[in-house]
Amino acid sequence: MLTLDQLRRNRNVLFWTLHAAGWGAYAVTQSFGALLYEKPLSYQLVIAIAAGSGFVLSMPMRYVYRALWGHPPRTIILGVLGTCYAIALALRAVINITYQRLVEPDWQFESPLALFGGALSSTYLLLCWSGLYFGIKYYESLQRQREAALRSAALAQEAQLKMLRYQLNPHYLFNTLNAISTLILDNQNQTANRAVQRLSEFLRYTLDQDPMKRVTLRQEIEALDLYLSTERLRFGDRLRLEYAIEESALDALVPSLLLQPLIENAVKYAISPRESGGTIRIEGRVRGFMLEITVIDDGPGCNTEWLGEGRGVGLRNTRERLAVLYGDRHRFTVLNTRPGLRIDMALPLDTARETRVEPRSGLAKPAAAHEADTTV
After folding, report:
1. Would you give the distance in Å from CA 76 to the centre of its chain?
2. Pairwise CA distance, residues 346 & 357, whole Å
3. Paired strand residues for 281
4. Of the candidates 169, 365, 172, which has an alpha carbon nearest to the alpha carbon of residue 267?
5. Is the peptide bond before 339 cis (omega within 30 degrees of 0)?
């Protein structure tokens, strides 16, 4: 038994099903009419032959209309009218001959023009057939155009997301290689070697991750720890981290490597320039149907000119990436807190408990948004 969706996708099956159903409906309605007007039993045979003849004679209409499709409307209308009337004449001739032989042997045409006039009723029937055919064909054409537009939009969205993600990788790599170069110049070769090893682990992780993939916030924090392990080698106690993440938020899905560019931005502008270093705080909570994530640092903050100078690549890319993924269903704001910078994000809540992974040691312990902090 074919489903409606299978019928729609298999155009040949759809055509023959509708074609047979249409002429079957014609036979049924004519039969009821004959019974209502108390026609002889032989008239039912005439109706059956008429329906069968209509089924056969109207089959070529499909191929004629295929040839007409794509032509100007005037050509299509004239072609349809001519085709319907020609087939209606043939159908009317079959009906009249059958009626004469099976029902009323003495019946004769009143005049030759009676055949042409009688064909008009069959023409209306075939015009209905034609309207249904072109209606379905036009609907299918619109559906194909819509599906092509959706595929095109999806491919464009995927390409844009990949571009934004891949733009971050060389940005991060450039910054980290600069840091390793500084360690080597300072004769901190062992530290530089460990930094190279941590860098390779993080790059392997980023290459394995599909830019279109979403991960749980728990996994995102673990990926962030790979990045921070490199930064800890550079800054030591100058880099202080605080986590305040609710248990319910840890299983929420977020775009992969969402936090890394934001933390990298905070390290570069809030931690690195200051001899005393600084603190970065990451908060996560569920509010209604939204996942709220906040990244706060106690650095100098930023302003419009600061972003306009070409810095803040991570902020701009994250904003654009979320806009592509969620459209108007998200929030991304950057606020100066004097001192510091606060980045607030709100994403539609979606969870995946089956992908739950226990956090590594040294990562944030789940806590309410304003409960005791875990400092690393």
Report:
1. 36
2. 23
3. 242, 296
4. 172
5. yes
Neighbours of 146 (CB within 10 A): 10
Contact residues for 306 (Cβ-Cβ < 8 A; gap 6+): 312
- Domains of the chain are 4-150 (no CATH), 213-375 (3.30.565.10)
The two tokens of residue 195 are: 């930094």
| Tokens read off for 326 | 């969620």
CB distance 256 to 211 below 8 Å? yes
Q: How far apart are the first and last CA of the chain?
A: 63
Do the bridges between strand 239-245 and strand 278-287 make them parallel or antiparallel, or are there none, so unpaired?
parallel
What is the C-alpha to C-alpha distance for residues 189 and 111, in angstroms, rounded to an integer?
111
Residues of the chain with pLDDT under 50: 164, 166-168, 307-311, 354-376
Q: How far apart are CA 61 and CA 64, in angstroms?
A: 5
Give residue-wise pLDDT tens across range 88-133.
989 888 888 888 888 777 766 666 666 666 778 788 889 999 999 8
Nearest C-alpha neighbor of 258 from the set 330, 165, 342, 357: 165
CA separation, residue 289 to residues 119, 349, 353 (Å)? 65, 5, 16
